[in-house]
Design goal:
Strand order of the largest sheet: 1-4-8-5-9-20
Shape: elongated
Mean pLDDT: 95
Order of helices and strands: HHEEEEEEEHEHEEEEEHEEEHEEHEHEEH
Number of strands: 21
Radius of gyration: 24 Å
Oligomer: single chain
Distance between the termini: 31 Å
Number of helices: 9
Strand content: 15-25%
């Protein structure tokens, strides 16, 4: 096989523009995966496009591509994007990929079509330098269901790959990890997420005759205080303290002279590696029982979750990525577990995974955009990672 020829059409900017111009709002594929498949196939990758289904959720198209034999470095991400909102509020059309003032505008420029473009451009350039016999394997695992229910995407794509005997040594997920400046932060783990519904049961009645009713609102406040009275923990070496946040409180009562029958609240907990969903649910029940005593009747519905806390222990691969970032940006990135959830929570069961991508300041916003210079720098960083992971002298990769 001849080495891949890298052209201007395969620059990170051109690839990002091509992806942005595909209106792939979850769950629509929008042409984005087809665009990637054509480029990867032309570069010699074996490309497959499995579609997964689940009752009550939309069918989702996904992409898996692999080239080479031996230790496999996996690049992962998603081409689906959140809706643009009012397109007329954008400075440029959200799916036009316009460049202005050194910035590329468009939905997905940051989250995360720009990151995929940089990874792809770096891989194509690497293959152009080294050819297909580089002493290992490279794979792309791209879903169209990260911004949606995340049911028919990465989690099933990994199961599909595992059933076929696909193995991965390490994964780089291209989520936007930098708050303000490229090179600030690598994500080496994520907190878990647990949501629960709390209902306090009362007896409806007239406000003028409270002795004939049982107002659930004071009970709800009492239970809420019981949940919040003490911190869940003080954090760990790599994680902040877990936090419980009430997101709704409601009685659904349109009348001002009626004591309601129920009061309801919903809360979410972002938890660290001291907890599992099961131990956290048990702690919630303990706190609620202590706060309720014999005075408050309540029920707790803890929703199922696939978001558990995990940590990728810093190893040689993390150091390779950090070295590459420092070489290109002059910054040594912090190793962080902050932020929300990502598909890394699924990938960590297949191999060690870290996240590094673009500056996330404008993700999901009107006029989402990325500095063109950052696209070039991120591609150069990934190129350095590839050169270190697959050394030209055939030395053993620096792996854990």
């Amino acid at each position: 096989m001849r080495p891949v020829t890298v052209t201007d059409a395969h620059s990170p900017l051109a690839l990002a523009q091509g992806l942005i111009r595909c209106p792939s709002v979850t769950p629509q594929e929008g042409g984005a995966l087809a665009y990637l498949a054509e480029i990867l196939a032309a570069a010699g990758f074996t490309v497959e496009r499995p579609v997964f289904s689940e009752p009550g959720t939309p069918d989702i198209e996904n992409l898996y591509a692999r080239l080479g034999e031996g230790p496999c470095l996996l690049f992962a991400g998603h081409t689906d994007v959140v809706p643009p909102g009012d397109a007329s509020a954008w400075r440029h059309g959200p799916f036009e990929g316009v460049i202005e003032g050194g910035e590329l505008f468009g939905r997905g420029a940051v989250d995360m079509k720009g990151g995929i473009a940089c990874m792809l451009a770096a891989v194509l350039a690497f293959l152009g330098r080294r050819g297909p016999d580089f002493g290992g394997a490279i794979a792309f695992l791209i879903t169209g269901d990260e911004e949606g229910p995340a049911v028919n995407g990465t989690v099933k794509l990994l199961d599909w790959a595992r059933a076929r005997g696909e193995l991965f040594a390490h994964c780089l997920l291209g989520e936007p990890t930098n708050p303000d400046t490229l090179g600030e932060m690598i994500k080496i783990g994520r907190r878990g997420s647990l949501t629960a519904n709390l209902t306090v049961h009362g007896v409806q009645g007239h406000v003028a005759y409270p002795h004939r009713a049982e107002n659930p609102i004071p009970g709800l406040l009492r239970l809420a205080q019981g949940l919040l009275a003490e911190p869940l923990d003080a954090g760990t070496a790599h994680f902040d303290a877990s936090n419980l946040e009430f997101t709704t409180m409601d009685v659904g009562n349109p009348a001002t002279n009626v004591i309601p029958a129920e009061a309801r609240a919903t809360f979410n907990i972002r938890f660290n590696d001291l907890w599992t969903p099961e131990t956290l649910a048990a702690e919630l029940e303990r706190r609620l029982a202590a706060a309720a005593g014999n005075a408050v009747r309540y029920s707790l519905d803890v929703r199922p979750t696939n978001s558990v806390a995990f940590l990728t222990q810093p190893d040689a691969f993390v150091e390779q990525v950090a070295d590459a970032i420092e070489a290109e940006t002059g910054r040594r990135p912090a190793l962080s577990t902050t932020g929300g959830t990502s598909d890394a929570r699924f990938i960590k069961d297949a191999c060690p995974v870290i996240e590094f991508g673009l500056v996330g300041r404008t993700m999901h916003q009107v006029d989402e955009r990325v500095a063109v210079a950052d696209l070039d720098r991120l591609a150069a960083i990934v190129g350095r990672v590839l050169d270190a992971y697959f050394p030209a002298d055939g030395a053993t990769q620096r792996q854990a």
